[in-house]
Amino acid sequence: MGGALQCAQQQTQKWTRRTSRDGVPRESSPFITNADMDKGIIYEGKNMALFEEEMDSNPMVSSLLNKLANYTNLTQGVIEHEADEDSKRREIKAPRMGTFIGVYLPCLQNILGVILFLRLTWIVGTAGVLESFIIVFMCCACTMLTAISMSAIATNGVVPAGGSYYMISRSLGPEFGGAVGLCFYLGTTFAGAMYILGTIEILLTYISPSAAIFKSEDGGEAEAMLNNMRVYGTCIIALMAIVVFVGVKYVNKLALVFLACVILSIIAIYAGVIKTAFDPPDFRICLLGNRTLSRRNFDTCAKFTKIDNKTETTRLWRLFCDSALLNATCDEYFSLNNVTEIQGIPGVSSGVLIDNLWSTYSDKGSVVEKRELPSLTGTEETKVAGLPYVFTDIMTFFTMLVGIYFPSVTGIMAGSNRSGDLKDAQKSIPTGTILAISTTSFIYLSCIVLFGACIEGVILRDKFGEAVNGNLVIGTLAWPSPWVIVIGSFFSTCGAGLQSLTGAPRLLQAISRDGIVPFLHVFGHGKANGEPTWALLLTACICEIGILIASLDSVAPILSMFFLMCYMFVNLACAVQTLLRTPNWRPRFKFYHWTLSFLGMSLCLALMFICSWYYALIAMVIAGCIYKYIEYRGAEKEWGDGIRGLSLNAARYALLRVEAGHPHTKNWRPQVLVLLNLDSEQLVKHPRLLSFTSQLKAGKGLTIVGSVLQGIYLDKCVEVQKAEENVKSLMAIEKTKGFCQIVVSPSLRDGVSHLIQSAGLGGMKHNTVLMAWPQSWKLTDNPFSWKNFVDTVRETTAAQQALLVAKNIDLFPANQERFSEGNIDVWWIVHDGGMLMLLPFLLRQHKVWRKCKMRIFTVAQMDDNSIQMKKDLQMFLYHLRLNAEVEVVEMFENDISAFTYEKTLVMEQRSQMLKQMQLSKNEREREAQLIHDRNTASHSAAVVQANAAAAAPERVQMTWTKEKLVSEKHKNKETNLTGFKDIFNLKPTWRAPPFTLLWDAPSIPASQHSQAVLVPQYGKKKTTPPPPPPPPPNF
């Protein structure tokens, strides 16, 4: 005690020393080590304004500059989130960010990226201004609706530290959360590959074309470019991975530089558009007829030129003709058409917008043409391969352009990824994200109109700027120089790739540490400072797959699928929770409505199939497989998500539907209530009973595992919890899918009765009771075991339920065992509607009993026609669609129980009488029910009289004596066989005997080589203990 007090005093002294110069103690955390606290001294003297009160003494400009200095676009790691759970936090207090620095700028930087600089002009030229406007509007509307749903999630309670994944998973649940989280991770990873491919394209096409390793030969320029992309991409991935591994702080320091590049590039574009209104730039393009020429191999746009009053051919002539002479043989199209030169960027006031309104889709390898100009094609189709035309590298159509463009609007979760670093996440995330989407949407939509109004259509369709001397098309419009866009886009895409390689491993680490995907557990580990080393390695490998594809136009639709899947489920979560009226769903965001989420979900799904229907199906299959894997193998998590609420609502609806009517005989299957016995340690005495249940049910239908503890619930509540844990763990081991119900009752008999009566809910109630044979009923110290068993039989019969009693249950096979041969024997003594036939059929569906054969034994007297009986029984099995061997056992009449014969004979007489009365089907059913009710009433009256007499137990006299049996047999000898046929003609009604005995170790001579024997047990209700079951057929 004294040592603990001394340690506390020393710790208090340490905390006392950690004060600022004004005497106010600084905030300290017990999770920060001494080394980390020593590093914290570097923050002294810097602007650490966290509250409004401090802003009075700190200038606004100084505060803003300090925030910009600490600006970062990195996704938040999982360290903060894990610290909340395991109390092992290691963090240094940093300035809390507001809406502008923490959300708006990161979203702006992530949304404006490579597609804007490299593909937007090409999309406008190909699809036209109108269709491009539709494409951009659809994509921006999708992200805006998703941002509204995200705002609702962010304002519904405290935003957890850890970013978008934690917000989504805690709203969707572990299954959907894990699937969406992995889709988000794959999308972020492929986005890194797309950014790297964009970086290499800018480097090799516009900055330094001579740096290409593979040179084009014989027209193989496209293939050489792909190989260059693969080589350079692999090197850049390795370099970026090393930078991220060494330290994220270096990436963090460059974040402001990358942001500045994006903003300056956008400003340069708008400045260039304004300049074109009064001074358009001089970028001339050369046309042969109406075909656009690539100016990489010639400088003069003319066929001839005059030098010293002499007409000489130009380099363009030599590209189309076989020699430089004027009488050379030239290409026919070259000879028929003139070479013209037009202004590539005529300016805003030129009226070129009218020409660019409509789409100009083309096939792969076609020449980029200005269709408004006249052209003579000649009599023969000329070959264009190898000539200096501008060709389209891919086939273009509307849906393909949607898939390529959509990645340019992703990145809306960049602000929510840093939720733990915001002052007020519930305010900053909605405001900053929606403002960033509004800003970028305006930029994209305005750029479409401005590009169409300023730039000639053939240049817009020239993807790589070959008609303007290999310049970046959007760079030709920029002011003051095209290099502003080239350099700015290069650093912007390079920074975006670095941020993707930094954020994706942290997202994977967060999913791994949640424990919902077991095989990803290894990726939750990292370096001592928490950096996800293994996750970074996996991310680099997946990113390399995108690099090997080597085409930005092919990678873009892939990541579009994953992001659209993620956005779709975000909208789904909000819509579901609103429609289910979840009590905890109370978002403060007042502009939210469930119809917006539903519209966003529908738009995401439509865009997925618009982009690529086969990619959409593949993405859905991947998400579905992840969902089922987490459901099957993942850890149980209860996050209070909306999907669980949807499941409860669906279950309630289904129960109400099931309650409406009784199940048809075609849908009947045993819904089992398993009665277990527990020992003094609350352990299950007969575990094989659950093994047999799983083999019989195979996960289908209802299974309720119940047990009774004797006592009072207030005294046994702890034991009940322990018993439930033991039973559930055993159910998991035996793969028994069902529910556990433990009942506490003053007596075991009453507890079993309560279970039989009340187990289940609504239409989901059991119709079959499964229990083990009472082995200790003959012991003197347990005089009530037989009484409890008999009462269970009676109550099950009164409840019109089937009772299965397994004898020698401990000898039954386990789920791991497999029978290579053997039989399942059914002693079919009395027609029970097919219950005994159904049980072996269900058993043979399981792997344990699959190779066992089914045999049916029936009993006949010596003077019966056994051959005809066998044929009739085979026909009965044929109608039941069961494959089984049929055996007829002939026995003397003295060996057959009088009650069994009486039961069969009564059924024969009823069937014959109803048949002779020639009643309709409904009348026969009503008459049979009336006879049943009368017999039940008379039997109940006899029981009441017997109980009132309270006579001593005596030997029960059967209703039928031997003499009466003989006389009745001779009286009905002619009709006996006909009555037996009527048994097989009865319709299956699943009427079960009082109980069915299942044997594992048969002592029946006819069933010596069987693995199991099913025998129906009939008998009068007695007040004396039941004798041990004799081997059939001696009932």
Automatic annotation (TrEMBL):
Residue ranges annotated for the Amino acid permease/ SLC12A domain, each copy included: 103-276, 394-673
Annotated SLC12A transporter C-terminal domain residues: 803-926
Domain of life: Eukaryota
Alphabetical keyword list: Cell membrane, Chloride, Glycoprotein, Ion transport, Membrane, Phosphoprotein, Potassium, Potassium transport, Symport, Transmembrane, Transmembrane helix, Transport
Signal sequence segment: none
Recorded catalytic activity of this chain's protein: K(+)(in) + chloride(in) = K(+)(out) + chloride(out)
GO molecular function, one term: potassium:chloride symporter activity
Subcellular location: Cell membrane
Stretches the record annotates as Disordered: 1-30, 1010-1035
Biased composition (Pro residues): 1024-1035
Positions of transmembrane segments: 97-120, 132-155, 176-209, 229-248, 255-274, 394-414, 434-460, 480-498, 534-552, 558-580, 592-616
NCBIfam families from the UniProt entry: 2a30
Protein family: Belongs to the SLC12A transporter family. K/Cl co-transporter subfamily.
Record-given protein name: Solute carrier family 12 member 7
The organism of origin for this protein: Crocodylus porosus (Saltwater crocodile)
Classification of source organism: Eukaryota, Metazoa, Chordata, Craniata, Vertebrata
Designated gene of the protein: SLC12A7
